[in-house]
């Protein structure tokens, strides 16, 4: 018959021996219950002669069926839970609770610490259990001790209740907080988690790294010290040691501070010493932590051999900095810095790349990038963006350090915004740094010194939408912006509209009345001798759209199809604007958005005359269950009732029909993403502009894409980018798992690259080619990049980087990784450290 002992303490009349048993000691260190095959009390071979208060008492169930030993299961979790419940004083009397109430928890309960953990019961399980109540418990044969998140296994275990001391001998294994330790001998005080391990090996779950030591001392549950220790995330390759190994005299492990400190450390890579440190700090998880990041070695045609060693400084949870000392064989010493901060009400980023003395030019060089967003008193919001470099040649010598989409045109922009109900007031100053080339000069936009305005947008109770924008600008020329002087001056403009949308299920109709008024006061006289001018241009439009849908079957699957016709009529009278200045107006590209716009220009200074009707239709296919769009096809064209005289190219448009715009996208074919847009001229019967792209992504770290861009008479380019495995014995690992994309020590090779080829010029404009190797415990990158800085001038750069998983934590700011992410569509990190595994 199977018995379980009650929570009543055993009397001191005898010691107990239980075979093939599980034993629980409650928070008062009393034997609470056990699950055993046989319960013979030592000194009393005949149970009938044992004193009544020494007999085991069955509990937990008043009606139990006998079980044979063969059919007896090991102690089930439910039985353990019931035993622990009984040990904490739950009553088995008739007037007690009938059972345990289980409740769902929306999150995993964190492990208990300190005194709360010390009050948890201790569970023992072994082939044989011996014990003296309130004194000691001994477990032999597959012995196991468990308290909360702590698990100790050994050939034999002894627990001293008075000293709270556990001693384990023989094949000792310890698991706590996702970390594993093993060795021949362990001594540990459970409540304070103090003790030592002899000749242990250890493995940390969050980093996937570990090592061996001569002795490991536990200071508490969060801190320990390993003597004569090593550390690695690599398994042995069978021919010797692991691929990389950090050997130290002593390692201090602080899991609360997420820091490991190695004294007198030597780092070996394939048994070759590559670095030595008196003290080396490394992280114990993927959380942010101060320390050195993987160095980058590069070879640049402009700067020669370069070495960059970034240091990440975790100042606070909301502030950090990255300091990157650099040394260039040709240019000398430099320092690249990045400081990020996020405070209540404001945040931003500061980048400063400084070369105090460039040996090639003889003067200092720098690049500054400043971003700031702040909430100020009186509901004011501040936005600052500033890009500056030291000289005109900087973008050629350091092309990757210019943080701008237009490397020769760097903006500085300061804006104050104050929203208040339907009104938004704002003020702004905007300037430009123009990096001129004597052989290829460019014209920069005007500077706004200042720009002051207000916007109003409101919908009244009758359904009318009212919008108004009024703004004052002072336009000036940037320094060295143009080769010939341009007119400067002030402009006061107002843009207003009133619309009444009629919205019903399946269709909308929106009549709209608008105007564009501007007044100019110029520093130089116009061609007709005027220095002051003004004009007002009204416009009316009627926009109607429909949405029809049906259930259909396409590509062998049920789907939902829409049909979305749209008509837009616009009437804008002709006003001669050729004699007025043009500070900010430019022609819009002919695309899906602009085809339904009322003005062919962006900005304020030019308004196209119009008497036209734009008609288009779009059809889309949706998955009826997920709502995901699988196909989109559309066509649009304008019909002109009269000639258009104000056009972006200055040529009167006399045709009745505009070009036809065809566009579409599809993900109906599994693993493929297709997109395209074509502008077709019926008059010339040929394509004017087109963008067509396709991307194939069959799985993680596998993507290849190609695009074709044509602007008739201007450019024609083919662009190909990819990330693809090219060999190796490892299997791709799920993203977020330490160790990257390879699950075995065999490793995987990946090819990455992008090539942009100009068919019009018959040359490669920009190109990138790289290889990544993921061994599972280290990642190597070799990236070659060529950037055009002129029609016959380019900068070529070769970068090499080594990342040791578990020791160095890579960030996106590192050169090779940033280049790959910015240039290859769909690129995935081999090691995505934004997702850390839980213990």
Short note summarizing the structure:
The protein is mainly β and 839 residues long. Among the domains are: 3-89 and 111-282, Sandwich (lipopolysaccharide transport protein A fold), CATH 2.60.450.10; 487-653, no CATH class.
Q: What value does the average pLDDT take?
A: 83
The second-level CATH architecture of the domain at 3-89 and 111-282 is Sandwich
Computed over alpha carbons, the radius of gyration is: 37 Å
- Name the overall outline: elongated
Low-confidence stretches: 1-15, 37-97, 732-745, 833-839
Give me the CATH fold name of the domain at 3-89 and 111-282. lipopolysaccharide transport protein A fold
Structural class: mainly beta
Number of distinct helices? 4
Strand content: over 45%
What is the CATH superfamily of the domain at 3-89 and 111-282?
Lipopolysaccharide (LPS) transport protein A like domain
- What is the name of the CATH class of the domain at 3-89 and 111-282? Mainly Beta
Q: Using DSSP, what is the number of strands?
A: 49
Described by strand count, sense and barrel closure, the largest sheet is: 26 strands, antiparallel, barrel
- Helix proportion: under 10%
Q: Report how far apart the termini are.
A: 40 Å
